[in-house]
Write a structure and sequence with these properties.
By secondary structure, the protein is an alpha/beta fold. It has a 7-stranded mixed beta sheet, covered by helices on one side. The protein has one domain: Rossmann fold (3-Layer(aba) Sandwich), CATH 3.40.50.150.
Length: 190
C-alpha cells in the first residue's frame, strides 16, 4: 500500500511538473497546440515527402508529425524549446519503436532507415540548410523572423508547409482548407 502511494505521489508530481512547464509555453513564440489528427494526412499529401528526404518540424510539440515523417522514411527532426515536450516525444518514439512502426533495414518499400530525432533549442537557432521539407504550426508573430531565416538558409526547392498562418510576403503554390477556419499553405523556396 505504501509503495502504491509513493508511486502515485511521484506520478502526480511528474504530471504537475509537465503541465506547469507547458503553461510557460504560452509565453513562447509557439505555445503547445496540437495539430488536429484529422489534418495530418492532408499535410503529408501537400508535403510530398519521399524516403530519405530531410524533414524538420519547427515547434514539434509532442512529436506526432515528426514520427509520421520518419515512418514514411524521411530523416525527421523535431525542434522544440520545451524540455518536457522533448522528453515526452522521445518517450513516445521509444514506445513506437518497440511497436515497430518505423521502416527497418532491408524494407523493400523504403530504402532509408531512420528514427526521428528531437532537438531542444529555439527554432531560430537551428541550421535548416539541409532541409528538404519544413512544417510549422506557429503563431503569426514569429513568421516574419522565420521568413528572414528561410530566405537566408533554405536551398532552392525546399518545401515549406505552414498550418493556419502564412509566411508574410511569400506566395503559396497551394492552399488547402481542411476546415473553414484552417488553411495549409504550401510554399517552394525559389
Amino acid at each position: 500500500m505504501l509503495l502504491l502511494l509513493i508511486v502515485l505521489c511521484i506520478l502526480i508530481v511528474a504530471l504537475g511538473f509537465f503541465y506547469f512547464t507547458l503553461l510557460f509555453t504560452l509565453f513562447y513564440d509557439a505555445p503547445y497546440i496540437r495539430t488536429p489528427a484529422r489534418d495530418i494526412p492532408l499535410i503529408f499529401k501537400a508535403a510530398g515527402i519521399r524516403p530519405g528526404e530531410v524533414f524538420y518540424e519547427l515547434g514539434s510539440g509532442d512529436g506526432r508529425i515528426v514520427r509520421t515523417a520518419a515512418a514514411q522514411g524521411a530523416r525527421a527532426f523535431g525542434v522544440e524549446k520545451s524540455l518536457p515536450l522533448i522528453w515526452w516525444s522521445r518517450f513516445i518514439t521509444y514506445i513506437a519503436r518497440s511497436a515497430r512502426i518505423y521502416p527497418r533495414r532491408g524494407d523493400t518499400k523504403v530504402s532509408h532507415y531512420s528514427l526521428p530525432s528531437y532537438i531542444q533549442r529555439n527554432i531560430l537557432d537551428v541550421d535548416l540548410s539541409n532541409a528538404d521539407v519544413i512544417f510549422c504550426y506557429l503563431l503569426p508573430g514569429i513568421m516574419p523572423r522565420l521568413k528572414e531565416k528561410f530566405e537566408r538558409e533554405l536551398k532552392s526547392g525546399t518545401r515549406v508547409i505552414t498550418y493556419a498562418f502564412s509566411v508574410p510576403g511569400w506566395t503559396p503554390i497551394a492552399r488547402l482548407k481542411p476546415t473553414p477556419r484552417k488553411v495549409i499553405h504550401v510554399y517552394v523556396r525559389q
